[in-house]
Amino acid sequence: MGDVTVHIEGPDAAEHGAALRADLGYPEVENDGPELESLGVDPATLIAVGGAAVKAAATIWRWWQGRQELPNVQVEISLPDGTQVRLNDVSEEQLAIILNRHLGSE
After folding, report:
1. Region 71-94: what's the mean pLDDT?
2. What whole-number distance in Å separates Cα of residue 55 and Cα of residue 89?
């Protein structure tokens, strides 16, 4: 299984990324990704997701529900097969199914 990443765009994206990272129980981002910065991506807005898919999906969904009303905040999940999933376009159940396919049910 490959990496599943969550990318946050919009106002205060780094702050939202830090909140999601904390909710998932991940450490703060270390800025060791100069290749991301060269592409115009702030490493603080990109989160690699691992662990149990159902737990990750539930955590991401709860985090998203608290931010859904914010203007211009976009959240996209990149899957190992190249598929891009926007949180605006899926339900919590669909997110759990998608993550389970790529993360498994540890």
Report:
1. 86
2. 20
